[in-house]
Amino acid sequence: MVAVPTSLRGVNYSVTVDVTLRAGIADPEGATIERALPALGFSGVSAVRAGKSFRMNVEADNEEAALAKATSLAQRLLSNPVMEDVVARITSEA
Amino acid sequence: MVAVPTSLRGVNYSVTVDVTLRAGIADPEGATIERALPALGFSGVSAVRAGKSFRMNVEADNEEAALAKATSLAQRLLSNPVMEDVVARITSEA
Q: How far apart are alpha carbons A41 and A23 in whole angstroms?
């Protein structure tokens, strides 16, 4: 068994991927939330949009590679590219 | 009709609220995503956790007030406080 040097193993990055509806796509969930807020006593809140977020640990050589991998997998598995945008960001280096 | 000075109207902040499952709460959605990734050719991704995110414009006097309002409404309307954590962050000043 050959030990793999740390430098070849890559670093674990904590990445958060936000999947949001594209501008112009109707968001009934957000609209319903917005209508419910005044009855709960919250005023001055508008343009509510609902989305999904995914947190994951990504093994990669650097931040750019981690973000690229997370964006790519989110576009293939976690979102509908016709209706949704994907934005990945580094949360921390694990 | 009395015009309201701008200084009394507050500022519109774009706030994003992330609703995530607390540590230790089982996340079948995240586990399913994680199992599906190798078949799509993505390796080195672990600890996938699924959550929700909400973007909204909040009218408030300052950033702290906007974050407090968003956190409060998310805890009452958008999350299950027993199982989920709420984190609000300013995305931009609208």
A: 28
Q: What digits encode the pLDDT tens for the residues A4-58?
A: 555 556 789 999 999 999 999 999 999 999 999 999 999 999 999 999 999 999 9
Give the whole-angstrom CA distance, residue B9 versus residue B12: 9
Interface TM-score (ipTM) > 0.90: no
Asked, for residue A39, whether it belongs to a domain, the answer is no
Residue A88: give its domain's CATH number: 3.30.1280.10
Distance CA A57, CA A46 (A): 33
Contact A73 B40 (CB under 8 A): yes
Q: How far is CA A54 from CA A8, A19, B6, in A?
A: 27, 8, 38
- Which of B20, B10, B15, B51 lies closest to A49, judged by CA? B15
Facing A57 at nearest CB: one of B47, B54, B57 = B47
Counting Cα atoms < 13 Å in the Cβ hemisphere of A37 gives 23
